[in-house]
Design a protein that fits this description.
The complex is a heterodimer of chains A (282) and B (265).
Chain A (H helix, E strand, L loop, with lengths): L6 H6 L7 E14 L2 E14 L3 E5 L6 H9 L6 E6 L2 E2 L7 E4 L11 H12 L3 H14 L15 H14 L4 E5 L7 H18 L2 E5 L3 H7 L2 E6 L4 E7 L9 H4 L3 H14 L14
Parallel strand pairs in A: 3-8, 3-9, 6-7, 7-8
Antiparallel strand pairs in A: 1-2, 1-4, 4-5, 9-10
Helix pairs in contact in A: 3-4, 3-5, 4-5
Chain B lengths: L2 H31 L11 H14 L6 H32 L1 H14 L4 H12 L3 H26 L2 H9 L4 H38 L5 H10 L3 H29 L9
Helix pairs in contact in B: 2-10, 3-4, 3-6, 3-8, 5-6, 6-8, 7-8, 8-9, 8-10, 9-10
The chains are: A alpha/beta (282), B mainly alpha (265).
The complex binds adenosine-5'-triphosphate (ATP) and magnesium ion.
The site of adenosine-5'-triphosphate (ATP) has 11 residues of chain A, from helix 2.
Chain lengths: 282, 265
């Protein structure tokens, strides 16, 4: 790590950690172009706990999506390995769910069928599937849209359906690549609250890419910042705000929120910064 | 614009099409009524109708009119079904693997632009003059458009959609069956419409070269005796059947693929 992370990061890390679920070991990624290789990711080492909510920030093009694709198994790294539950993870599987920036629902399937798809692939009994589908439709508030096709839904509804579809297969980890960035501010706030509530209920490992510092602060228990050329981790911070269970609106008025926000913004911009004073945490 | 006014426009467009047909019928009636054209070249609508009723009653050359039509359609459907069950799977594999495509591409690219009648003689030589050579010819003309539509469609399936299915636990064969095939189905059906058009044209040509039944054969045979009324009945029937088949497929597309072309779907 290059930038000195705030001291609070380490103190709050002292709480009893859950077992590691995902481990990235010396991940490198390079795309070969013409005569030379362009390094995209350089020696990424990372451990995600089974109940972590990790937000990844970084400038555009620094390799966030590339890292997610490696985690998901869509992309094979040039070097290094991904371990899930101490098993090498070499291809996509239902263990790791993915929510994309574009909802990626199957356009010919109704919302209910979309949510059912993963269960069908798993070989879940038909009656059981029905029950689970209605549970997850309820969870994201789409009961009344079960029999509509994706194009008949609004952007926010589609994104909720996509989240329900991923959750229904009960993955151990959920990777999200800027899932709310295409939504309007109000819908986004709703979705953030929704997701936070979900995570508090299920305590699944969530790996969440965003370019929105506030979003990272509101959601993440742990916040990572990447720099580009080649992509590498520069900040790994336990978010002190995450233990403050307040509404998102209230959180935004805290002074600490603003301190952390400007700290992260300068960290993304690659400036030498002083750690915010967060003495109040201890 | 609301759905109501779109519907209104739809009805209006239908009305315009109707006027166009009525206009042609009118010119036809008037020009034959006043004998502007020799009835040998252009029979009157009434005589064409009379001939049609007569053909319905007595058939043509000992074979009923419906048998002629069914003979033709039978050849067409056997060929189309064979083409569907070969061109689509092969197209899917070629769309997935560029090596498989590289293997089949030269073969298909070579025969595709050939006029079917050019190799029909060979097919007749190999398979005989009966239905087998005709079905083979029709199969070949249906195969290429279906194959090409399938390949192009598979190549356009978004990688993210495949990735989504994989991370929902779908194995590769299941991705093929549950994701790639349905993704491509609308394009395959469009390819089928093209294939039917091409095959239909070939069918009539094939029956004109070597046959003893079929609607195409009836038209050619009648023209030898200058029976232009029978020729007209044949042509109108052929056109009508083609329009009927195409409308049925379009209706199916409309009902089944409402999601196609919808923004952000
Ligand atoms: N298939 C590819 N071939 C070559 N280079 C690629 C490929 N995919 C991505 N890259 C490069 O990898 C780098 C990282 O891309 P990536 O999509 O991971 O960035 P990102 O951090 O997700 O950016 P954003 O915030 O804009 O989504 C970029 O410089 C991009 O040009
Ligand atoms: Mg990205």
């Amino acid at each position: 790590m290059q930038t000195s992370a705030p001291t609070t990061a380490h103190s709050s890390m002292a709480h009893n950690r859950n077992p590691t679920l995902i481990e990235l070991k010396n991940i490198r990624l390079a795309y070969s172009q013409e005569h030379h290789d362009t390094p995209i990711l350089d020696d990424i080492n990372l451990q995600l706990d089974a109940d972590d909510f990790v937000c990844l920030l970084g400038p555009s093009g620094c390799g966030k999506s590339s890292l997610l694709n490696i985690l998901a198994g869509f992309q094979t790294p040039t070097a290094g390995e991904v371990m899930i539950d101490s098993q090498p993870h070499t291809g996509p599987s239902a263990k790791v769910g993915v929510v994309f920036q574009h909802h990626n629902l199957f356009p010919w399937m109704t919302i209910a069928k979309n949510i059912e798809f993963g269960l069908k692939m798993k070989g879940v009994e038909k009656s059981e599937r029905k029950k689970l589908v209605s549970d997850y439709l309820n969870l994201v508030g789409l009961e009344s849209s079960a029999h509509l096709l994706p194009y008949q839904l609004s952007g926010g509804m589609k994104q909720r359906a996509a989240i329900a579809r991923t959750l229904a297969t009960d993955p151990q980890a959920i990777l999200m690549d800027e899932p709310f960035s295409a939504l309007d501010a109000l819908t986004r706030e709703n979705m953030q609250a929704h997701l936070l509530e979900l995570w508090q209920k299920t305590k699944k490992c969530i790996f969440f890419i965003t370019h929105d510092v506030e979003e990272a602060l509101l959601l993440g228990r742990r916040i990572l910042v990447m720099h580009a050329n080649p992509g590498r981790m520069v900040v790994d911070l336990q978010n002190p705000l995450s233990s403050y269970r307040q509404s998102i609106q209230e959180l935004k008025h805290l002074k600490e929120f603003h301190d952390l926000r400007s700290y992260l913004i300068s960290a993304i911009r690659n400036k030498e910064v002083n750690s915010p004073r967060l003495g109040w945490l201890r | 614009m609301g759905p109501r006014s779109t519907y209104k426009k739809h009805v209006l467009a239908r009305g315009v099409s109707f006027i166009s047909v009525a206009f042609i019928l009118m010119i036809w009636t008037v020009s034959t009524h006043f004998k502007w054209v020799d009835p040998v070249f252009l029979p009157s609508p009434q005589s064409v109708w009379q001939t049609f009723l007569e053909l319905l009653r007595e058939g043509y050359k000992g074979i009923s009119l419906s048998s002629h039509i069914l003979d033709s359609l039978y050849r067409l459907f056997i060929a189309l079904i064979l083409a569907l069950f070969t061109a689509v799977p092969l197209g899917i594999f070629c769309g997935i693997s560029k090596y498989v495509l590289a293997f089949f591409d030269p073969i298909i690219e070579f025969y595709r632009p050939l006029p079917p009648l050019a190799y029909y003689a060979l097919l007749v030589l190999w398979l005989g003059i009966d239905d087998r050579s005709k079905v083979a010819l029709l199969f070949l003309s249906a195969f290429a458009p279906l194959f090409l539509a399938t390949v192009a469609s598979v190549q356009r399936v978004p990688q993210d959609r495949i990735n989504a299915a994989r991370s929902l636990g779908a194995t590769k064969p299941k991705v093929l069956l549950y994701i790639i095939l349905p993704s491509c189905l609308p394009d395959i059906i469009t390819g089928l419409r093209t294939a039917i058009g091409v095959t239909y044209a070939t069918l009539v040509a094939a029956e004109m070269v070597a046959a003893t039944s079929g609607i195409g054969w009836m038209v050619l045979d009648a023209s030898k005796y200058l029976r232009s009324d029978i020729v007209f009945v044949g042509i109108i029937l052929m056109g009508g059947i083609a329009i009927l088949m195409d409308s049925l497929i379009r209706l199916y597309q409309h009902l089944q693929f409402s999601w196609v072309g919808k923004q952000d779907s």
